Structure prediction request, 315 residues.
Amino acid sequence: MLTRIFLMCCAMALAQPVMAAQESGNTHLIEMEGAKLESGQLAYRMVSHKIRNSSGSVQDITDRYSSEPTIPGPTIIMTEGDVAEITLKHAIKDASDPVSLHVHGVHFPIESDGTMKVFNHLADQAAFPGKSYTYKWTAAPGTAGTWPYHDHAFGDPMLGAEDKGLYGTLIVNPKSGKVAALIDGQMKQVDIKDIKREFVLWMHETTFWGMELNHLANRQIPLWTNPTLGAREGELVRFHVVGIGTAFHTFHLHGHRWLQPGTSHVVDTVNISPIAREVFVLKAGEGVGTGEWHYHCHVLQHMQSGMMGGFRVVK
Ligand SMILES: [Cu+2]
Prediction:
């Protein structure tokens, strides 16, 4: 009897975090597909994203996304306490290999690992041609951050095809709604809702692949390769710099500096190794004003190959 009570208590304790998340947070109902671009590269596309809140009302935010497949893929934004059900469809023409979705950072059961049986010893967790696969993620407390998601199945059942463009970004905002930043030369807590523009920059071999999250227009704008970014002087902007592939980079932004997350270090150049991230908020043009500020990888060989872009700060 005691054992039974103990087991019941354990089961309740184990079940509690997921239930708490479902009760307090939103549920994201997402449909995505893996597709092929005209260039032959692969890319994810957002088909549908609906958010159901704790009282059951549903908001459709699909129109915030590009209607076309993009590199990087759609940026999924959640808040600590949210859960997501993501159904991935196979839409890669003339391909028999399955496509999958493997995410970092958040919690998920082993069935949602997005890997193949040869890898997880359980099952193929991927969408085969004409089929789909559903993944469940929980943005549990403590999983706030910017995380990559990517394929782990196509072409090579051990590695997948992230190298061909099947990768994207998950942002889990903290429940507090605030992030640390260096603003007007001081460490401050910034309200995330005051950030009107975010730039997602993936560093892949010798190219930046970018996306703007424009919260003024409620749109995700694909920026493609080595883009020029734009902001108004004094605007709070958040950068999400992510590495992918095999190369090691040094991300540098001219004229600006930021607080290295979790520290009081002020930096203007950071190392970005594959799947490493640097996420920071700054005030556009702070102390330096308007101008065509540049960002680039500081590895000379990568710079020589054109790994750079502009950060245009205007009045
Ligand atoms: Cu580099």
